[in-house]
C-alpha cells in the first residue's frame, strides 16, 4: 500500500491504495465517489470516464498512482453544469448508467472544442457506449450547447 | 481491479529507468516498462501480464519530445496518440494513430505502447515503416539508434531491459502524398479488419499493412510487383501473391474476405495516389 495525495474535485485527499489499483477503484472504493461507473473494465464502454487535467480519461485504464499531481474531476465535481441541464432538457438518458461517463467526455469536448463540428462530436462520442441506445438525444444535447456557444459568440461580435 | 500487487516507479531520466530495471530484475521482480499502460492494465486484469514492478517512462523528458531537429522529426515514445493527432506535424502518423481504439482511450495509449504492444494491430508503426525511420532504444549500455527495419520484424525486437525512447523520421517524408485507410467489418466503431497505409515518395509507392496477418508489416515484395508496368488490376493481383503468411482467419473476417477487402482497398488507394489508371 502507498499513501498519496490526490486532487479530486478541487479537494486534496490523502488516500491509501495499492499501486496496482486503477483510478476507478480508488475513486469508488477509497474516496466513495461512485459517479464513475464500472462497466467493461476494459476501456471499451466509457462508463468510468473522468477528466484528468481537462482531458477525458477512462479511469479503468489508469492507475490511481498516475493521478498524483494531476487535477481530477469526476461527475460529483461537476455541479449544475450546462451539459447536465442539456441532458435533462433533451431526455439524453434512459437507464442512466452510462450518463456520468458521457457527461464527463462531453465536458472535455466542450472545453477543448467549444465550436466542435459534427466529425469532432462523433469522434469524441464514439468513445462511450449507451446500451439503451439513446445516442440521438445525447447528440441533440451536445449540439444544443454548441448552438448556444455559437449564438453567444455571434452576440459578442455584434456587441463589439 | 488488478488481481495482484506491483510496485510503481516513475524515473525522471533514461539512465534512472534503465538502472531501475536492472536492479528490479536482480531482485526477481520481473519489471516491465509502462507507458500508457492500457495493455498492462487490461491484460493484467485477466492475469495475462504479471509483474511485481512497473517502471513508468512518462516522466522522462526524451520520451515526451515532439520536435523537428536537424531535419528529423523526433517523436517521443510516451506521447499519447491524441497528442500526436492534435499537433499533426506528421499527417500520415496522425491519420494512422486516429484509427487506434477510440478517442478517450487514445488520450492514454501512447505511440510507443502501441508499437510495443501485444495486440497484433499496432497500426502506429506503419508510418515509421513507410518512412525508413530510426528507433532510439535505451538499454544498459546507453542509447542506441537503429533503422526500424532492423528492429521491427513482426514486432519490435528489444533486448531484456531495453525500452523505446524515440522514433526519428526524415523530415522530407512528412509532406509526401499518402493515403491511410482503416476498414472495419461493421460500422465505424467495430474492431478493425485491415489498415493499409501508402505513401508516394519521389520514385516509388510504398505500402504497409496491419490487420491482415498477425503482425503489421512493410510490404516490400508487394511494392516491387505493383511498381511494374501494366494495368493497375494486374499489378495488384501480382502484388497479392507476395502477401506474407499466415493471413488472419478469425471472427472479424475470414482470410478470403480479408484478401478481398485488401484488393479493393489497394485499387481505391492507388488510384487516389497515382491518378487514374486503366
UniProtKB/TrEMBL annotation, chain A:
Keyword Ribosomal protein part of the UniProt annotation: no
Gene Ontology MF term list: 2 iron, 2 sulfur cluster binding; metal ion binding; oxidoreductase activity
InterPro entries, per database record: 2Fe-2S-bd, 2Fe-2S-bd_dom_sf, 2Fe-2S_ferredoxin-like_sf, 2Fe-2S_ferredoxin-type, 2Fe2S_fd_BS, Beta-grasp_dom_sf, Diverse_Oxidoreductases
Pfam families registered for this protein in UniProt: Fer2, Fer2_2
Keywords: 2Fe-2S, Iron, Iron-sulfur, Metal-binding, Oxidoreductase
Domain 2Fe-2S ferredoxin-type residue range list: 2-78
Name by which UniProt lists this protein: Carbon-monoxide dehydrogenase small subunit
Species this chain originates from: Fictibacillus solisalsi
TrEMBL record, chain B:
Sequence ranges assigned to domain FAD-binding PCMH-type in this UniProt record: 1-174
Residues passing through the membrane, by range: none
Domain of life: Bacteria
Keywords for the protein's UniProt record, in alphabetical order: FAD, Flavoprotein, Oxidoreductase
One Pfam family hit: FAD_binding_5
GO MF entries: FAD binding; oxidoreductase activity
InterPro entries linked to this entry: CO_DH_flav_C, CO_DH_flav_C_dom_sf, Diverse_Substr_Oxidored, FAD-bd_PCMH, FAD-bd_PCMH-like_sf, FAD-bd_PCMH_sub1, FAD-bd_PCMH_sub2, Mopterin_DH_FAD-bd
PANTHER family: XANTHINE DEHYDROGENASE SUBUNIT C-RELATED
Protein's name in the database: CO or xanthine dehydrogenase, FAD-binding subunit
Organism: Fictibacillus solisalsi
Amino acid at each position: 500500500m502507498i499513501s498519496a495525495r490526490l486532487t479530486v474535485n478541487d479537494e486534496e485527499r490523502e488516500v491509501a491504495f495499492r499501486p496496482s489499483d486503477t483510478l476507478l477503484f480508488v475513486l469508488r472504493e477509497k474516496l466513495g465517489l461512485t459517479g464513475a461507473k464500472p462497466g467493461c473494465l476494459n476501456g471499451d464502454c466509457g462508463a468510468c470516464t473522468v477528466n484528468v487535467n481537462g482531458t477525458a480519461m477512462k479511469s479503468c485504464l489508469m492507475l490511481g498512482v498516475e493521478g498524483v499531481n494531476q487535477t481530477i474531476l469526476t461527475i460529483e465535481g461537476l455541479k449544475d453544469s450546462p451539459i447536465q441541464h442539456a441532458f435533462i432538457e433533451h431526455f439524453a438518458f434512459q437507464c442512466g448508467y452510462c450518463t456520468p461517463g458521457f457527461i464527463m467526455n462531453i465536458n472535455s469536448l466542450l472545453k477543448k472544442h467549444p465550436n466542435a463540428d459534427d466529425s469532432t462530436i462523433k469522434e469524441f462520442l464514439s468513445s462511450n457506449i449507451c446500451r439503451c441506445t439513446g445516442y440521438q438525444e445525447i447528440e441533440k444535447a451536445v449540439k444544443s450547447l454548441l448552438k448556444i456557444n455559437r449564438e453567444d459568440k455571434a452576440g459578442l461580435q455584434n456587441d463589439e | 481491479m488488478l488481481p495482484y500487487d506491483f510496485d510503481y516507479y516513475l524515473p525522471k531520466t533514461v539512465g534512472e529507468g534503465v538502472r531501475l530495471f536492472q536492479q528490479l530484475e536482480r531482485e526477481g521482480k520481473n519489471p516491465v516498462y509502462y507507458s500508457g499502460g492500457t495493455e498492462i492494465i487490461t491484460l493484467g486484469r485477466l492475469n495475462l501480464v504479471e509483474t511485481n514492478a512497473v517502471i513508468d517512462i512518462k516522466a522522462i523528458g526524451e520520451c515526451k519530445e515532439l520536435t523537428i531537429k536537424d531535419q528529423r522529426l523526433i517523436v517521443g515514445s510516451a506521447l499519447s496518440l491524441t497528442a500526436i493527432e492534435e499537433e499533426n506535424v506528421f499527417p500520415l502518423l496522425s491519420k494512422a494513430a486516429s484509427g487506434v481504439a477510440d478517442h478517450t482511450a487514445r488520450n492514454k495509449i501512447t505511440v510507443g505502447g502501441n508499437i510495443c504492444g501485444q495486440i497484433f494491430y499496432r497500426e502506429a508503426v506503419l508510418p515509421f515503416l513507410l518512412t525508413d525511420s530510426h528507433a532510439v532504444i535505451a538499454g544498459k549500455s546507453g542509447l542506441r539508434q537503429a533503422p526500424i527495419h532492423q528492429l521491427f520484424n513482426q514486432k519490435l525486437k528489444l533486448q531484456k531491459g531495453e525500452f523505446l525512447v524515440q522514433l526519428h523520421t526524415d523530415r522530407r517524408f512528412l509532406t509526401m502524398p499518402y493515403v491511410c485507410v482503416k476498414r472495419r467489418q461493421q460500422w465505424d466503431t467495430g474492431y478493425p479488419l485491415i489498415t493499409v497505409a501508402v505513401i508516394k515518395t519521389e520514385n516509388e509507392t510504398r505500402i504497409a499493412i496491419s490487420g491482415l496477418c498477425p503482425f503489421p508489416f512493410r510490404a516490400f515484395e508487394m511494392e516491387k510487383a505493383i511498381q511494374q508496368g501494366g494495368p493497375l488490376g494486374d499489378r495488384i493481383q501480382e502484388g497479392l501473391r507476395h502477401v506474407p503468411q499466415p493471413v488472419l482467419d478469425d471472427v472479424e473476417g475470414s482470410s478470403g474476405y480479408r484478401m478481398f477487402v485488401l484488393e479493393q482497398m489497394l485499387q481505391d488507394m492507388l488510384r487516389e495516389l497515382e491518378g487514374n489508371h486503366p
